[in-house]
Design brief:
about 160 residues; alpha+beta; 2 domains; six-stranded antiparallel β-barrel; 3 helices; about 55% strand; elongated
């Protein structure tokens, strides 16, 4: 009579239990990783990204409604909701007045692009299109005909269905 017929290999042992616990832990970890941005209220996330010292024609490339994608990982970030241009300046120390003064750089502008994405918000974090959003975060983004890196300077949320 073989070992299989006697039932020696049909027993449940400690190693089987450890393997089952490890598999359940891996499934729970994967579920947490992929669902971590899913909790909270469903909102529109408006993030304003600042691009400093851009040449004069850059803002003409950006149009309201353009789809914005991450320039590195190519995931969808949202659509352009607003484009604003301001003269670019630097803070320099003036020897004559012994004060810090603004010096405007001729021919260059700071461009502020506001992106509207779908996301969630709770007490701990704001997620837009699955990515965590924070003021000061560096964003590499691009649209049709342009790509650049800037920093989030403003972040706000609005309930879906409102602006």
């Amino acid at each position: 009579m073989s070992d299989i017929e006697r039932g020696k290999f049909n027993r449940f042992n400690v190693i089987d239990g450890v393997l089952i616990v490890l598999i359940i832990a891996m499934i729970a970890g994967a579920a947490w990783f992929f669902m971590r941005g899913g909790g909270g209220d469903l909102v529109y996330v408006y993030s304003t990204v600042e691009f400093q010292n851009m040449e004069i024609g850059f803002s003409d490339l950006v149009s309201i409604g353009d789809e914005i994608r991450c320039a590195i990982r190519n995931y969808h970030m949202g659509h352009v909701a607003r484009v604003e241009t301001k003269p670019s300046y630097m803070i320099n120390f003036s020897i004559e007045t012994e004060e810090f003064v603004r010096v405007y750089t001729e021919g260059y502008y700071d461009v502020y692009i506001t992106i509207r994405g779908r996301g969630t918000a709770n007490e701990g974090a704001i997620y837009s299109e699955g990515q965590i959003m924070r003021v000061g975060r560096e964003i590499s983004m691009g649209g049709r005909g342009y790509a650049h890196t800037g920093f989030i300077t403003e972040l706000r949320t609005a309930q879906r269905g409102s602006n």
